[in-house]
Amino acid sequence: MIIECPSCHSKYQYDEERFERKPSKRIKCARCQNVFDIQNPAFAAKEPALPAGDRTMTGKTERPKTPEETTEQSPLPSPRATGKSEPLKLPAGRRLSLAILDGPDAGNVFRIEKPRVTIGRSNADLTLNDTEASRLHAAVEVRDMLFMLSDLGSTNGTLMGGEKINGSVEINDKSEFQVGGTTLMLIVTEDA
After folding, report:
1. Is the overall model pTM greater than 0.90, yes or no?
2. Among the four 59, 102, 125, 175, which has the fewest Cβ within 10 Å?
3. 180: pLDDT confidence band, cut at 50, 70 and 90?
């Protein structure tokens, strides 16, 4: 699909698989650094039609709904939401890797061989040649098929979708996140 920045009107090709079965994604324009929401077309077909200008697929800003206009309820927290109920363990029959997509180490792939991997500039399991990364910046914890990304009190923060994460967030296969000036992606494959 083609998306358009509502600020500078730059257009980008966006792979719909990157929505990870979510109704929308928050992205940052590579040109003007504006952060905006884009809507998953797979969910757009299921929603009732909205008046023109309220929501578009081009990434234009969606008008916020007042509490009276929505019937959507916040999801109840599940035991998996905190990620603390399950023990740390690698999933059977799966290979986990962290691919470095952008930054000084771009092109490298780090295989995850233990259920907790730290990422940082020094004394980390995955050491980055990135001056914007803290010594111990972030960690990925694996609880079978639940993958959690945590910021370890870094100076610049750990970003997902252009926004700093607070504490821990769940990530999935092909999820991208940023540590300093480095962009990484979690990759989950069948173990041959």
Report:
1. no
2. 102
3. very high
